[in-house]
Amino acid sequence: MLECVQPVTASVNRRHYNIDNTNVTSSTPSVDDCLQKNGGERKVPARCKPDQRREENADSLSITIPFQSQKYSWDCGLACCSMVLRYLGKDDSSIYNRDLERLQCGQSVWTIHLAYLLKYHGVVMKFFTVTLGADKNYAEQKFYQNHFDSDEAKINQLFESAHRNGVSITKQNVDI
Questions:
Q1: Nearest 5°: CA angle at 79, between 48 and 154?
Q2: pLDDT of residue 116
Q3: How many Å apart are CA 149 and CA 147, to the nearest integer?
Q4: What predicted TM-score, i.e. pTM, was given to this entire model?
Q5: Residue 59, pLDDT score
Q6: Mind telling me which InterPro entries this protein's record contains (predicted)?
Q7: Model confidence over 25-74: pLDDT tens digits?
Q8: From CA 132, how far away is CA 39, in angstroms rounded?
Q9: Residue 20: which residues within 8 A CB-CB, separation 6 or more?
Q10: What are phi and psi of 24, to 5 degrees?
Q11: Residue 32, Cα to own-chain centre: how many angstroms?
């Protein structure tokens, strides 16, 4: 799961909103204080404290993200990154050419590639995963099975060099 420190989640229940707490201080506003009216839309700014209340009927939060449909059967992650970049006001025109070449992944796009892609575009984010590297269980999944053997070493190398390349990865299960 990728968690952007900037507000890019389409619809979230505040009870489960994952917020970066790295720089939270006593003066950091709560989620409720962070909710802002902006052109009729409620948005949560980049950094705020987690909501301490655990209400059963918590409000939901919804933001508008520009839609980008997939161009191919294999590019769902690229389309999602395109939507994130557009939402953040960043140019997404290089995703399907220059960025894809830089990632050297062809049509076999893994989540680690998306983390690097967002890093290339200056998006501050954290990548949460339960497996640091290529999960061998994917070898049997149709999408990955034809190229898992050739992908595995490349994926593991991307994980190993992530910190050095400024890509934040945390081994942690995230409840949604």
A1: 90
A2: 97
A3: 6
A4: 0.65
A5: 66
A6: GUCD1
A7: 444 444 444 444 444 444 444 444 444 333 444 567 778 888 999 999 99
A8: 41
A9: 3, 5, 46, 47, 126
A10: -75, 130
A11: 23
